[in-house]
C-alpha cells in the first residue's frame, strides 16, 4: 500500500504529471529526483502549464535561485534560449527590475 503522505506531496505530484519529461530516469526513481534536476528539466523541456505548476509548487524565488546557481557554473545544461528568457523573466519578476 502506498504511503498517503508521499502520494499527496505536491512535488511528487508535479513529477508524476510531467513524468514524460524524465524519460531518462528509471520509473522507480522518478519521484526521488533532486529539486535541482526538477527545475532544470521543467524549465528546459516543460510547457507553460508545467512551469506554472513548478512556480506554484516550489515557489518562484526558489526556482530563480536554483536557476541562477545552475547558470553561473562553467558547464550549463540549459538551452541558450531558455537561459536568455528566464534570466530576463526572473530579473523582472523576482528581483524587481523595472524597465
Keywords for this structure?
mainly alpha, disordered N terminus, 99 residues
Structural features, described:
61% of the residues lie in helices and 0% in strands. It is mainly alpha-helical and 99 residues long. α2 (10-17) packs antiparallel against α4 (48-58), α4 (48-58) packs across α5 (60-71) and α5 crosses α6 (80-93). It is globular, with a radius of gyration of 14 Å.
How large is the share of residues in beta strands?
A: under 5%
Kindly give the count of domains.
1
> What is the number of beta strands?
0
Largest beta-sheet details: none
Q: Give the overall form.
A: globular
Question: What's the arrangement of secondary structure elements?
Answer:
Layout: H1 4-7, H2 10-17, H3 35-45, H4 48-58, H5 60-71, H6 80-93
Helix pairs in contact: 2-4, 4-5, 5-6
